[in-house]
UniProtKB/TrEMBL annotation:
It comes from Brassica oleracea var. oleracea. This is DUF223 domain-containing protein. The lineage of its organism: Eukaryota, Viridiplantae, Streptophyta, Embryophyta, Tracheophyta. CDD domains: RPA1_DBD_A_like (cd04480). It comes from the Eukaryota.
Length: 136
């Protein structure tokens, strides 16, 4: 499902609210990786993703649990502008904090990810953050 509607409506990372809602973000999709539980024999627990906001260096991370990982894999395209609809916003535990943002976007069964073709916010994906410093 490609989004071809002009004037994409979305929230900025700063305007996100806690809880499940019909919030949307439009952002650059930076990177994703498998999340493993090191205490349980490297068990796969889901996928962690990084999103870049239209403000330079404003990054938030997202997470999809193992049960939804296969569903979202085809939509995880690095260096694309994406719109993410219907997700849960939770406080990010300091134990799992990988960005400066205090919230985490959690994919739920209603979450939709679309590539934004027109009406996208201006996000310079050439100014990518150095993700090599983030531990996996």
């Amino acid at each position: 499902f490609l989004n071809r509607r002009p004037g994409v409506r979305y929230s900025t990372f700063e305007s996100l609210r806690l809880g499940r809602s019909s919030q949307s973000i439009a952002s650059g999709f930076l990177r994703f990786w498998d999340s493993l539980n090191f205490k349980k024999d490297m068990e796969f627990v889901g996928i962690t993703v990084l999103f870049l906001d239209e403000k330079v260096n404003s990054v938030i991370h997202g997470f999809t649990p193992v049960g939804r990982a296969n569903h979202y894999m085809p939509f995880l395209k690095v260096d694309f502008i994406v719109k993410v609809d219907r997700f849960e916003v939770i406080r990010c535990s300091s134990m799992y904090k990988i960005t400066d943002h205090s919230f985490l976007i959690r994919f739920i069964s209603l979450t939709i990810i679309d590539e934004v073709i027109t009406g996208a916010p201006e996000i310079n994906l050439q100014l990518r953050l150095d993700c090599s410093t983030i531990s996996k």
